[in-house]
Automatic annotation (TrEMBL):
The entry's keywords: DNA-binding, Transcription, Transcription regulation
InterPro entries: cNMP-bd_dom, cNMP-bd_dom_sf, Env_Response_Regulators, HTH_CRP, RmlC-like_jellyroll, WH_DNA-bd_sf
Domain Cyclic nucleotide-binding: 15-118
Origin: domain of life: Bacteria
Domain named HTH crp-type: residues: 155-223
MF term (GO), any: DNA-binding transcription factor activity
Cellular component, GO annotation: cytosol
Coiled coil: none
CDD domains on file: CAP_ED (cd00038)
Protein name stated in the entry: Crp/Fnr family transcriptional regulator
Length: 229
């Protein structure tokens, strides 16, 4: 299989960043990953099951949601091309706490975890770099989970919204940014009712704290938003 058509996306991931075509050729040859297509709504990974593969989104979008005892689900993350999932699970025997589904038709590349953990006898430099990047990826997700916990600890809905908006601004590096989340998915992410979220966003827009453009947001005065938390 010719993987080279996907190298541009692979280099955007935290796992393969800055790697040359030659490095990727070596790794693809060692791992022989497989690629799968999914229709919108199709299941990639179900909560409660183990996985021995790490997934990379090449095209489309996926959503990971944690099922709750009452039958609802809380959105944990939404990923587009270059998103990496199951990277924490694949290295152990833990069962997935989330269900991963295709938010849009997508194509995913899977790397066998066994091949990542046990490099071939040649001990290629690219493989050692990949292991280093993998550890950094897991570390980054740990701190992302800590930020999510901080967000959910905010007692007021406005506080959660403000914290989320400021975090998105920091990630985008701009006062205007777009989120892949629908209002329903954002409400799930913030652990609130969709109607309550829409009402609060409307109030915040009236007060000049934020400007809304469907899935895009503009923060006219980030400091004012910070003090509104």
């Amino acid at each position: 299989m010719d993987y080279r058509v996907h190298y541009t996306v692979l280099r955007r991931t935290s796992l393969f960043r800055s790697m040359s075509d030659a490095d990727l050729d070596v790794l693809m040859g060692c791992f022989s990953p497989h690629i799968r297509r999914y229709r919108r709504g199709e299941l990639l990974l179900m909560a409660g099951y183990e996985t021995r593969e790490l997934g990379i989104v090449l095209e489309g979008e996926i959503t990971a949601a944690k099922p709750m005892p009452d039958g609802s689900a809380v959105v944990m993350t939404h990923m587009g091309p270059a998103g990496v999932f199951a990277d924490v699970l694949a290295g152990g025997r833990s069962k997935s706490p989330v269900t991963v589904t295709a938010a849009l038709p997508c194509r995913v590349l899977y790397l066998p975890c066994e091949a990542l953990l046990r490099p071939c006898g040649a001990m290629h430099k690219a493989h050692l770099q990949l292991l280093h990047n993998w550890l950094e990826t897991i570390s980054s997700k740990y701190f992302a989970l800590d930020r999510r916990l901080e967000l959910l600890c905010c007692k007021s809905l406005r506080g959660r919204i403000c914290l989320w908006l400021l975090e998105q601004r920091e990630q985008a590096g701009a006062d205007t940014f777009t989120t892949p989340l629908t209002r329903a998915e954002l409400a799930s992410y913030l652990n609130c009712d969709r109607s309550a979220l829409c009402r609060e966003l409307s109030r915040m827009q009236e007060e000049g704290l934020v400007q809304l453009f469907r899935r895009s947001f503009k923060l006219p005065d980030p400091e004012k938003l910070r003090h509104a938390m």
